[in-house]
């Protein structure tokens, strides 16, 4: 339905007020389609707020979006800073374990919004959390507020992490 709607909306060219349309529509446009109305950074900031689950997790379209986002944001290696993590939004759910490990705690806030994780992502999240080198600190120093911030990641925590969290 969304891809059909995009065809109708763009029938006479790309509308100038594209930002006023639902974010999910943008999933069916390319950054070059959007270029006339804004920057690729703005396009991916909007994509990051869209419901990515409209596209299947391992689909080529979703993988291509992530590759284009990394290129647009000029992320050279596997380290994503906080500003870029904010722009990527829900796209971080598709980043592999290498990205999660080398980005330290920069991705945790966005990762906690993901529906599910692949095994290498889970392992990387546990590794980052266990290191304690995040803005949240080590699990022994966490409060109820911290757990609330990371609530989406709790199912990934193993016994060694859970036992360190203060009652």
UniProtKB/TrEMBL annotation:
User: Highest taxon of the source?
Assistant: Eukaryota
Q: Which Pfam families match?
A: Mesothelin (PF06060)
Please state where this protein is localized.
Membrane
Q: Which GO terms describe its cellular component?
A: cell surface; membrane
Q: Which UniProt keywords apply?
A: Cell adhesion, Glycoprotein, Membrane, Signal
Say where the protein is mainly found.
membrane
Listed under GO biological process in this entry are: cell-matrix adhesion
What family classification does the UniProt entry report for this protein? Belongs to the mesothelin family.
Q: Can you name this protein?
A: MSLN protein
- Natural source organism: Oceanodroma tethys (Wedge-rumped storm-petrel)
Gene symbol of the encoding locus: Msln_0
């Amino acid at each position: 339905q969304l891809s059909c709607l995009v065809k109708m909306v763009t029938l006479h060219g790309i509308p100038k007020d594209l930002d006023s349309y639902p974010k999910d529509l943008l999933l069916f446009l390319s950054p070059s389609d959007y270029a006339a109305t804004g920057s690729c950074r703005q396009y991916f900031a909007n994509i990051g707020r869209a419901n990515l689950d409209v596209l299947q997790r391992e689909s080529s379209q979703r993988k291509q979006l992530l590759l284009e986002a990394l290129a647009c944001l000029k992320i050279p290696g596997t380290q994503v800073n906080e500003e870029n993590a904010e722009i990527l939004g829900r796209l971080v759910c598709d980043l592999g374990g290498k990205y999660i490990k080398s980005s330290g705690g920069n991705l945790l806030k966005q990762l906690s919004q993901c529906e599910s994780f692949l095994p290498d992502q889970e392992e990387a999240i546990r590794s980052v959390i266990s290191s304690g080198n995040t803005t949240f600190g080590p699990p022994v120093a966490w409060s109820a507020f911290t757990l609330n911030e990371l609530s989406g990641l709790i199912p990934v925590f193993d016994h060694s992490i859970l036992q360190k969290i203060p009652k």
